[in-house]
Amino acid sequence: MTGEEVKEPKEQQEVTEAKEPEICYKAIVLSGVGGYDKVKVEVKKGVPALKSDEILVRVQACGLNFSDLLVRQGAFGKHHSLGTECAGVIEAIGDLVIDRKVGDKIIMMNIDGGLWTELVVTTVNCTYLMPDGMSFQEAAAISVNYAAAYMMIYDYANLRPNQSILIHMAAGGVGIAATQLCKLVHDVTIFGTASPSKHETIKENGVAYPIDYTTLDYAEEVRKISPKGVDIVLDPLGGADDSKGFGLLKSLGKLVLYGSANQVTAPKRSSLAAAKVWWHKFNIDALQLINSNKAVCGFHLGRTDPDHVAEVIRKLISLYKEGKIKPKVDSVWSFEQVGDAMKHMQEHKNIGKIILVPEVKTTDATTGN
Amino acid sequence: MTGEEVKEPKEQQEVTEAKEPEICYKAIVLSGVGGYDKVKVEVKKGVPALKSDEILVRVQACGLNFSDLLVRQGAFGKHHSLGTECAGVIEAIGDLVIDRKVGDKIIMMNIDGGLWTELVVTTVNCTYLMPDGMSFQEAAAISVNYAAAYMMIYDYANLRPNQSILIHMAAGGVGIAATQLCKLVHDVTIFGTASPSKHETIKENGVAYPIDYTTLDYAEEVRKISPKGVDIVLDPLGGADDSKGFGLLKSLGKLVLYGSANQVTAPKRSSLAAAKVWWHKFNIDALQLINSNKAVCGFHLGRTDPDHVAEVIRKLISLYKEGKIKPKVDSVWSFEQVGDAMKHMQEHKNIGKIILVPEVKTTDATTGN
């Protein structure tokens, strides 16, 4: 190695720096699993590399989901990434990309996470063009929650006219989406649980009978209105609530299980809460199912055929364009506030979707979009 | 009490007898629970009494169902009656009956049994007018099997275009009905199990891939054609087959359980077969269901809302009129041959519906209608 050879690269580097200053971008990462303090904003350097079939997206808004709380707590192991949905603008495209162009506004979903970042590289098949009139915040709120609600209501529960449904956490992201999607079917009676301060909003959204689950027995409240029970229960709670929901079903009724929120009682994983859920865990055998003449459905978005998910999201975008669904944004938080945003969700304070934005937020957290 | 008073009723009785000779009619009854010998034809005397809202029906044909085998074996206790469906002609109506007249041909279903009889009294709401062109044998075959298949496929499984289904016992009453009802949806792929001698018939009925379950592993056979499995499994078998069916489901797939045929291996209840089914019994908890992203539905016709059953039967009659469904009669047996007819079903020899008729049968048991 000669002195000249060492010098040359240094010169080149200086020239490059002079032409184009190194780009930095923010991303939300986990420094470990546990409480809110494990979530950090990291500044990354350099534009991510782009393959010929990929696109580079500048993210404008991200959606926070309950699954992100579970990822942070380590419920899925230590190596899961946060952030399964966002919306942004295409900043560059690979040579072989034909159906997207620079400047396109897109919705993105990736169930494996990694979307809470200012700049992201992805393939086209994870993206959907945003329709006219849709805000970035709405775009960051329409994929995960609405797709889950859609598949639970239409693929599993097969909701039809004159039926009834109990939606737990009716003010949450899935709850708001599910209520709007139920309203697409004629004469459906919607029961929804939420704390009293949220009742007005969920009623406006379509819930006929808001139930204060914090002070009342929701099963008793449902039976006061509908003594035979309901046709469908959407249940993200787990534990003893699963059996209670099953008991509330009419003949041919469906209990759709999609979570275990009862297990998320504290910032960190709670052994006591987990034990309680486990102790009360819903368990059923073939004969009990036949004799009760009811169905139990387990839903897991991450284990759903990706082609079907894509088909559902395209359907949801059509419904949005027709004015039949509209995401409700609860509040907007900057990346740096992600811990507080998670706390807001975990303490069940939100009504609708919690949005994270890379820039320092410009709207008040309580007024939303 | 005087001599005159005693004499008067005697005279009245003699007069009645002279006017109208006592009517006798046959009914199939159980002399106990157990094997084929417990089923007897009893001759009853006198026309059953008719209330003002009831009708008297002369039965022309009755349907044999798997549940009748279970009733005979005592699976539901000692006091259940045989015979849940039949067809016949109205012979008399009560004063308050307005929507039926003498001579009407009707389909009857009563999940509590008691319809294997020449004369039966019932209320109008258990009956449906037979459409033109429907034979009594078809009419005795369209309610129980088709209603069960309809609700399993459309209420529970929510069959849609391009989906796939595995129908066990595809040559049985429910299997034939289910296949025809699946064909109403576009581009559905139907797998059906049956012994090889029945393959041609079930193929004609709509099964794309008949599977010889007697010599092959049906799950392997399905995966050869459809590596990802199927969207729906209709399972009347119970025991180890339930888990096998669950394993065959795609994401968002539905296992519909509606029986435990594996338990009916001998004329009498078999403790060994019951123990085997119990040992392999399908059991699942909430977390397993969510993680597998699948559903399990238990179907029990007897525990279904009667108004919904009636709605479904009316729908089935419309489908028959439109030529979209047509019951397949396997064979016709006289009441006196009921034991042999039951044996024929229990040994899985039938292709389609087994019919019982009060008169000595005029058709050959193997040629049917």
What distinguishing features does this structure have?
seven-stranded mixed beta sheet; Rossmann fold; alpha/beta; 12 helices; Quinone Oxidoreductase, Chain A, domain 1; homodimer; 25% strand; 369 residues
Largest sheet data of chain A: 7 strands, mixed
Q: How do the SSEs of chain A run, as a string of H and E? A: HEEEHEEEEHHEHEHEHEHEHEHEHEHE
Question: Please, what is the CATH homologous superfamily of the largest domain in chain A?
Answer: NAD(P)-binding Rossmann-like Domain
Name the average pLDDT of chain A: 91
Largest interface, counted by CB within 8 Å of the partner chain's CB: A-B, 38 and 38 residues
| Coarse shape of chain A | globular
Number of strands of chain A: 16
Do you know the CATH topology of the largest domain in chain A?
Rossmann fold
Q: What's the SSE blueprint?
A:
Two copies of one chain form a homodimer.
Chain A: H1 3-19, E1 24-30, E2 39-45, E3 54-63, H2 66-73, E4 85-93, E5 105-109, E6 119-123, E7 127-129, H3 136-139, H4 144-156, E8 164-167, H5 173-182, E9 189-193, H6 199-205, E10 209-211, H7 218-225, E11 230-235, H8 240-247, E12 249-257, H9 271-279, E13 283-285, H10 286-292, E14 295-298, H11 306-321, E15 329-334, H12 338-346, E16 353-357
Parallel strand pairs in A: 8-9, 8-11, 9-10, 11-12, 12-14, 15-16
Antiparallel strand pairs in A: 1-2, 3-4, 3-6, 3-16, 4-5, 5-7
Helix pairs in contact in A: 4-5, 4-11
